[in-house]
Amino acid sequence: MRALERKDCCQEAQYTQVRETNSETERKVKKLWEIWPARNRFMWDGRWICGPADDLGAQLIVLALFVFGGGVYITFLIKHFLEGGLIFMPIITIILFFLSIVAYLIVHVTDPGIVPRKNFLLDDQLIKRKGVNLSYLTDPNYELPVHIADTIDPEEGINTSPSKHGHRDYCSTCQIYRPPRTSHCSRCDNCIEVLDHHCPFVGNCIGKRNYKYFIAFVMLASALAFMLIVQLICVAAEDTPANETSKSDSSEDSGSNGNGQLILIIFGIACMIVGILLACFICFHFWLINKGKTTREYLKKKFVDEAWGKEQFDKWTEFTPSYVDYTQEIPKRSWYYQRIL
Ligand SMILES: [Zn+2]
Ligand SMILES: [Zn+2]
Hints:
By secondary structure, this protein is mainly α. The chain contains eleven helices and eleven strands. The radius of gyration is 28 Å and the shape is elongated.
């Protein structure tokens, strides 16, 4: 009996030791996303990266629009088309609705093209994107290729290269010499390759890696808004005063119809505003794509030479790998860990 108790005690002590060893290991190793020195939020153990928490208010507006739109459509609109035989209208609307949400989520969680900081770049073990000459980012004496260094703006006649006045574009926060067309996003606190703008409504920067998904989202959302407007017009034409008289005229029905009509009017106004804004926005971006410029470059009147990556706007299907694998483990004793804390 005593022997058995002793055995149990020994096993319990062993388990405790294993648990302590595991927790000690946990303390000694962290995932990169847990110690990333910027304002990003991460999900799914570092696989998804978003902008800062400040954006949540703007994202709630988008969420409210989706929920309100979906609720009104299912409650008041869809039955008109299911009963009327125009079933293709709800099918297209529902497909657009779900594709918009999917595109929104992809833009929201995709790395927009974050260029890592100096301490990260100096640790060879951490760089994921192989085959890219990263010495450009940290070496002040790195010689730029001639076609990048000596570009003359044909309209202005001045040198508008990244080596402005003999000095390359340097980010004092990230301590790197930025690649062409890279800017520091003050909201996320990262340098982003081909930064278009920071969008609080999608909760992320719009840059080299998620620009095409952003354009897809705006196109789908504006198509959805106009699809809803078309259906509202159909329902309004169906509910003309002449048609109304043929329907039931009980006081309860007319009261609920009045509330329903008020909600549909508010919904219609919201769809018109969102649809027109998104249509203007997408036209502006198509114009920018044609020019090969980002919003930021347009506003700052920056000249963009094709050698700096203008052609990337044509490569819609090309996937640019991220510089950083945020899921990788960083031992506390590592060179990088010691320098960022
Ligand atoms: Zn920076
Ligand atoms: Zn940002």
